[in-house]
Amino acid sequence: MNAVVAQFPLLIVSIIKIVVLLVIVLTALAYLSWFERKVIARIQTRWGPYRVGPHGLLQPLADGLKFLFKEDPAPLGAERFVYYLAPFLAMSLALTTFAVIPFGPQEIRIFGQRTPLGIADVNIGLLVLFAITSLGVYGVALAGWSSNSKYPLLGGLRSSAQMMSYELALTMSVVGVLLMAGSFSLREIIAAQQGRTWGFLPRWNIIAGPFPQIIGFFCYIVAAVAETNRAPFDLPEAESELVAGFHTEYASFKFAMFFMGEYANMITVSCLATIMFFGGWISPFPATPLWAWTLFLPTVLFAALGFYLIFDGLRYETILGRILLPVLGIALCALAALFVVFPGVNGFVQGPFWFLLKILVFLFIYVWARGTLPRLRYDQLMSIGWKLLLPLSLANVLLTSLALVLRQK
Amino acid sequence: MEIADLERHPAVERLRAWNPRAAEEVSESRGEVAIGVPRELLRGAAERLRDDPALLFNLLSDITCVDRFPAEPRFELHVHLVSIPHRARLRLRVRLSGENPVVDSLLLVWPGANWMEREVFDLFGIRFEGHPDLRRIVLPQDFEGYPLRRDYPVEGPR
Amino acid sequence: MTTVETASGPVQTMVLNMGPQHPSTHGVLRILLELDGETVVKAVPDVGYLHTGIEKSCEAKTYSQAITLTDRLDYLAPLSNNLCYCLAVEKLLGLEVPKRAQYIRVMLTELTRIASHLVWLGSHAIDLGAMSVFLYCFREREEILNIFEMFSGQRMMTSYFRIGGVAVEPPPGWQKAVERILDLMPGRIQEYEDLLTQNRIWIARTKGVGTLRPEDAIALSVTGPMLRAAGVAYDIRKVFPYSSYDEFAFDIPTRTESDCYARYLVRVAEMRESLKIVRQAMAKIPPEGPIKADAPGIVPPQREKMKTEMEALIYHFKIFTEGFAPPPGEAYQTVESPRGELGVFVASDGTPKPLRVHVRAPSFVNLQALPQLVVGRLIADVVACIGTIDIILGEVDR
């Protein structure tokens, strides 16, 4: 084994990282659907999933199994090859983007190999990311076209137009950040946001720099929601108009692949928003001794959640819940204890903790918007993209470069 | 209302002024005034009722039919009108024979007559001359018979 | 693919078959849309998928039995249908309903209007993508349905109004339940308005969409909130009052824009007006008094009398075996249902079964206007327009 590792160190380490990340991401995707259903349910004064497992925690598993065992019909006259290719494209491209996202500042050691936290550390990470996400439109467009059905066709048309026009605004909106960081590497973009204004305010791009990227962030988040086909821009799959849009004719696991692709895109886009505007894994609190207690925030959060789960679990209706919830709670408490006992571990989790917390906030905003807002119309969507977002993001680029030039003088 | 009052009803007076045969019978029961109109005069009468400034029956409320099988003429077409400006209601009654139940369409007078006439055609088989799109509306296009006729059994044909 | 001539020259069109199974056709409406891209060139509604022959069935039932069929017409406002049918038969019979029953009828029909508008608002909102409003509306509708259940034992197919009055004495404690709704609703209506009225996306989706000029609306026999949103204050409760509506003080909300947004505002305002009427009706309903007309042979006798008086027993037997026979003639009665002018035409030939029962269904007639509303607009607007017509397929197809 060691010999093989010695021969192809990078390959082996990468494969291990990919497998680990895939397992984590796919689980996260499944539980993101649970999270969305729960949050939407609370917004709508419902309970949400509750039957499968305690608090519906096993619902994603049940859904996954259901998708696997459903009949998988293909419509008559569908272009078979493309029809099967489309969901594969949608999901695999969405998952590929995770390859370039860094999850923490430190390096880890696998089989004695030092390697960054994240699969690949590409110095043009942002470009690679946008390149991959913009290919994602093929999954949707091809699905709409190959289904040989009218609703998917309209959905495919809508989404091709929508994704292409918002791609532009999306890319332009981050140019300001790139100018300020002077790099395409996601790590360096985060590194450029280190430090504090007046000693406490984080120098995140959203609030600091020669020109705070508030406009850029606004353009980015709107374009990103549109890019991921989520409410209020979920026109390609607008169920009240196009039944289910481009995936009307897809069933079983092919549908699940579109579903996972969409959720993966949500996570990617939230990651990017965090990295580019909210300082990635940088804690919102200064690293001075006065604020040292914030290092224990992960501990407190985990412990609180753990205790809640234990006490809630003991009162739970079903026996499974009375076993599973406390076990989960104890595991969380144990993790919290681990952080306290080993300062090294605590230091290591700080980065990923803040990173994931910020992503969660963005995901919550996604779900919140879906629970609140009506859907825009196709022509209104296009006019927002071309007449509002694009000029705004261009103005942002101009203003940022102006600010940079003035500062250099 | 007395018969004499009925004869002085503005709608009756205006219709008779236009054509002495237009209001061939006038009746009032349960607060509703009904004017019997000959089949061939229906559209003309409808236009007068809609446009005459003293009447202005601008809203067509309903068109329906009653089958008095086996009496003859068996069909009675009831047209209910509302005058929004004058807050008045009026019913026109047209008798149609079972042999050839044809009547002028009111579509050109009130475009809202479209589906109402299609429904009467669908369920009673009364043909509306001048209706551009006289198809069955609630029943399938290939349905046979006219189910609301009294000689059509409730359980359907056996 | 077919080619049609439009103002801007010939275009290749695609025919999209929307419905009868489609999430936003509110049941089984089918529309054949001819599309140029996403623009509607031609729209042909096709109805009848829910035709159950209710009018024919009525001819085979006695006058009282037919009440249960009227519930099934507009299943979101069953009490309006009950009321209209009962009023028509009462007109045929020349029956005077006691005031107490009239006020109870008014109160319950207005609650029905609120419940029906709530379903409308919820489903219209979900058609435009605002999911949560749907669930909020159904939460409140549930409370109103509970009141119906209190009164009649049924949530939806109430059949509570009978010829000559109402079925049974109001249940004990009904005032409290209605009071609760009256206290609850204003705040909840405000909640929906907070979510939608000033919402930019909502305004963008509904303002200027599906306009209909008032003269076109009248010509197409459009009634109800759609007509009032076009600026014509035609409300049967005011114009041809029935069931003592002339004793109530309320306004007819109208708008002049005649678009989907105006219809939304009119319906929301109508809910508030209905609350006003319910409050007045509550004050008017006397604690005691007859709930049925004194008409032996038509209105079933009280149980007490049946056990003591031979005559009452005979009447009871005759009413429920062969029914009663109104004098020959016709009666046409209209009421303001949540959707517009609901009319019931009853013709009697002097036998215990009606010669003809015809229902003038408001949404059937209003649906005719759909092509006018949607031609030249986008698919998304078709959904908005179907929503604001507020069709109930049970009533459209009968």
Q: What is the mean predicted local confidence, pLDDT of chain B?
A: 85
Q: Report the oligomer.
A: heterotrimer
Instruction: Count the domains of chain B.
Output: 1
Distinct helical segment count of chain B: 4
Count interface residues per chain for the largest interface: B-C, 41 and 42 residues
Global shape of chain B: globular
Strand order of the largest sheet of chain B: 1-2-5-4-3
The percentage helix of chain B is 10-25%
CATH fold naming of chain B? Beta Polymerase, domain 2
Q: Over the alpha carbons, how many angstroms does the gyration radius of chain A reach? A: 22 Å
Description:
- The complex is a heterotrimer of chains A (about 400), B (about 160) and C (about 400).
- Chain A is an all-alpha fold.
- Chain A is built from 14 helices and 4 strands.
- Chain A has helices at about 1-5, 10-45, 60-70, 80-95, 125-145, 150-180, 185-190, 215-225, 240, 250-275, 295-315, 320-340, 345-370, 380-409; strands at about 105-110, 115, 195, 200.
- In chain A, the strands form 2 sheets. Chain A has a two-stranded antiparallel ribbon. A two-stranded antiparallel sheet of chain A has the order 3-4.
- In chain A, strand 3 and strand 4 (about 200) form a beta hairpin.
- The relative contact order of chain A is 0.13.
- By secondary structure, chain B is α/β, with parallel strands linked by helices.
- Chain B has one domain (about 5-130): Beta Polymerase, domain 2 (2-Layer Sandwich), CATH 3.30.460.
- Chain B is about 25% helix and about 25% strand.
- Chain B contains 4 helices and 7 strands; from the N terminus they run H-H-E-E-H-E-E-E-E-H-E.
- In chain B, strand 6, helix 4 (about 115-125) and strand 7 form a beta-alpha-beta unit.
- With about 400 residues, chain C is α+β, with helices and mostly antiparallel strands.
- Chain C folds into 2 domains: about 1-45, no CATH class; about 55-295 and about 325-395, Cytochrome-c3 Hydrogenase, chain B, CATH 1.10.645.10.
- A 4-stranded antiparallel beta sheet of chain C has the order 1-2-3-4. A 3-stranded antiparallel beta sheet of chain C has the order 7-8-9.
- Chain C starts with a strand and ends with a helix.
- The mean pLDDT of chain C is about 85.
- Chains in contact: A-C, B-C.
- The interface of B and C includes residues 82 and 89 of B.
